[in-house]
Amino acid sequence: FAALHAAVPGLPLASSTVLPGVVLSRDFTAYCPAEGELRAVLVTEPLRPALTAPGVEFVVDSEGQYQASLRWITRRTEALVKHLQSNNVKLLLSSTKQDEVVIYYAKLYGISVVECLLSEEMALISEITGVSPYAPFGDNMYREITETAVASFCQPLLLGSKRCVHIGFTSVCAFQPHCLILCGPVDAVNEQHAAALQEAFIMLQQLFDQTVDQ
User: Which fold has domain 22-176?
Assistant: First the structure.
């Protein structure tokens, strides 16, 4: 319930509504409008490769070597983002903040980016779509990307003064997500309404479970 409702203070209760899909409590870091069905990948690690592995010391003998290493990282980052594009990926959903060079190439190759998603949001998307986070730095970085989720739309959404991301994922199960937009004059009222609705949903769930058991 926490990931499938959003509270909007400062609006009358009558403005409350139900939206199909998922509303993420983040704004786009990069937004590249795309028409029709689009593919998305989930990532939980930076896409800009590190100079060295954790626990390994990186030693350079000159400023020239260091700059050459940075150029290699930039080229590899571009190649990875271009590989995403060649696999028809139009949306990058990340639980971590990505480097500026990743955002630059994402904009260049027409890929929207949403960063710093909560673990609950990532888990919900995985449950809806059936995909796991994409791990780019395995044995073969250029293998076909199969861990892609499908969305029918992806667009900005303004809730009061807060900019959010509204995505309509294609569900792989019977669960078809909808997000409850709760409006009220102040946060305290919204919190009361949200708590009451959550208790009502729990009661209905228990009632249906008992009916099935009987």
Answer: GroEL (3.50.7)
